[in-house]
Amino acid sequence: MRHVLGVLGVLAAGVLLAVSAAMNWRFGFSLGRTELDGQIYGAASAAADCLKALIPFFFFAAVRNRIWSQAAASALVWVVVTTYSMTSALGHAALNRFDSTGHRAQEAQSYQDLRTELKRAEEQAGWIPQHRPYEAVQSEIDGLKMQKAWKWSNGCKDVNSKTERSFCQKLTGLDAELASASAAKTADVRMSELRSKIDAAAGTPALSEADPQAKVLTELASAFFPNIKIENVQMALTLFVALLLEIGSGFGMYVAFSQWRLYDRQSAAPNLARAEESTAAAAVAAPVLTPIAVEKSKPRSGANDNRSIEIPLEREVVQVPAIEARPAEVHQVEQKVVETRVAAPVARLAPENNTERFYKENVEVRDGSSVTATELYEDYCSWCDTKNKEPAALPSFAREFAELGVKKEKVAGRVRYIGIALKSDMALEEATKSPTFGTVAA
User: Fold this and answer.
1) Which end of the chain is least crowded, N or C, by CB within 10 Å?
2) Higher-confidence residue: 108 or 393?
3) 94/240 Cα distance (integer angstroms)
4) Considering Cα of 267, then 268, then 272, then 275, what sign does the dihedral take?
5) For the stretch 349-363, what's the b/e string if a residue is b when 16 or more beta carbons lie within 10 angstroms of its beta carbon?
6) How far apart are alpha carbons 87 and 28 in whole angstroms?
7) Cα(70)–Cα(62) distance, integer angstroms
8) Residues 420, 371 contacting (CB under 8 angstroms)
9) Largest CA distance in the chain
10) pTM (global) more than 0.90
């Protein structure tokens, strides 16, 4: 399950990082005078955004190792790249929000204009006099023009009799009715077009407000801030989007990868406890009694013997056979081991780092001796070369060596570690020292 959570976290952080890098690329591309310059600025902006996601790993590693100069440099670089990325995110978010808001405002205004024009067309259609359908009036007019009075009056241009005058008056009335029918027909076509446009616009959102989200938040915030304006809320929303992208892309990867580090620390503790229990059990199961070294001296010479006897400094050691422990004693030893394990933590089975391994193999405690920090570090580097290991930096080595409890003093302007000696120096001293013999007189 923890792997699933870790993978999902990495994917989410990767999406935020990709979005932020794309925004930075577009912002950098817009700064170029030519297309090549835009590509260069865009690539640099995207690389800076990716570096922003990696710097938390470098910063906290430097703090953990107490390399303060590296931590300060990482913090400075992070502030610079984050500020640059923040400006690009703000510009991109503001451009998109204001562009979409302006587009919705234009659509809302067009919708209102269509409704106003439809209302005006309906009012104009109401002013048209009563009339028959356009086709009926036109048919009646065509029928009148087939009569003889139409020809006798020369198309109602030369009216000479009462019959012709009555005919032309009737034809004029029909022409007026035909004009009203034509105007009504045109108005109906126009209103049909307006209604179709309104119906098409009715399917789009935000017809009454250009920015409904900002409008709702403004109304909610006005309960606490009466003087707040919709422009303030829009600015706050733009800033919030930019912060979301920058914080999510900057720390998302670090937070997601901490999932595995957390479980690794939790699983390491039970393994160490089981190793300590197995070590204590092995110590109880097979108690070891150290042989005692007994000095065996040569017999003294007689009182009248004036000969001098040469006795070497190295004395013979007689090995005393080991004494088998009785069951009762084994039980007591077992109780003492258990009490010791409960009272004080058992030491680790293996050195924790290379510095502790070097201390165990190349350093020996000796009263009255001291080693300079430079000599100690040079011997440590030589030891790493022989072991095919990468030596740590001098500040890290000094910090880890100080944690071993070795006393450190500054003597004659040089840092010296008191009470220890290098085994390589001791071997050199023993090789150069001539053998010494003691003479014991009777």
Assistant:
1) N
2) 393
3) 11
4) positive
5) eeeeebbbbbbeebb
6) 11
7) 6
8) yes
9) 195
10) no
